[in-house]
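Severity: low
Component: inverse-folding endpoint
Summary: output formatting inconsistent between runs
Steps to reproduce: submit the following structure tokens with default settings.
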């Protein structure tokens, strides 16, 4: 829904909110994830997520997001060192950042000693694996941890 397939659908979607982790495209009916803005690919049908006035160097990232090395694209901290490039310049998977001694920001922990991906503490042991090898749902590591949640921490 909200892909612009019909005028009726567009009208319904124009009144819909995109929430905190998405933004409305200039066409007024389509929503895209904030991390998809300025990634070099037009995700909005009207291309507004790649607007040159928006995708400028040194732009300010939304709360909970970190800038890629290109100084334009913003992604969520947990997308760094995930094993999948999310920055268009691949800087989130840089071997200088993704090291065994990587320190996670406050409120986050590494998936494991061998996995440098940082995950929100509230997402450990929530019966929804986020780490590439499911380390965040390992019964032995969940034994002394409170049960996590499935909500985005920056929305609470």
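Observed output (run 2 of 3):
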């Amino acid at each position: 829904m909200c892909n612009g397939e019909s005028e009726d659908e567009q009208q319904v979607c124009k009144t819909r909110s995109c929430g905190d982790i998405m933004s409305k495209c200039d066409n007024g009916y389509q929503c895209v994830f904030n991390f998809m803005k300025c990634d070099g690919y037009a995700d909005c049908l009207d291309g507004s997520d790649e607007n040159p006035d928006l995708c400028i160097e040194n732009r300010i990232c939304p709360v909970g997001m970190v800038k890629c090395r290109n100084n334009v694209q913003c992604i969520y901290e947990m997308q760094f060192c995930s094993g999948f490039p999310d920055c268009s310049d691949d800087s989130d998977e840089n071997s200088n950042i993704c090291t065994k001694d990587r320190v996670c920001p406050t409120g986050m922990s590494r998936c494991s000693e061998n996995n440098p991906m940082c995950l929100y503490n509230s997402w450990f042991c929530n019966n929804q694996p986020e780490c590439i090898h499911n380390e965040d749902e390992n019964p032995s590591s969940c034994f002394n941890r409170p049960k996590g949640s499935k909500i985005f921490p920056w929305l609470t």
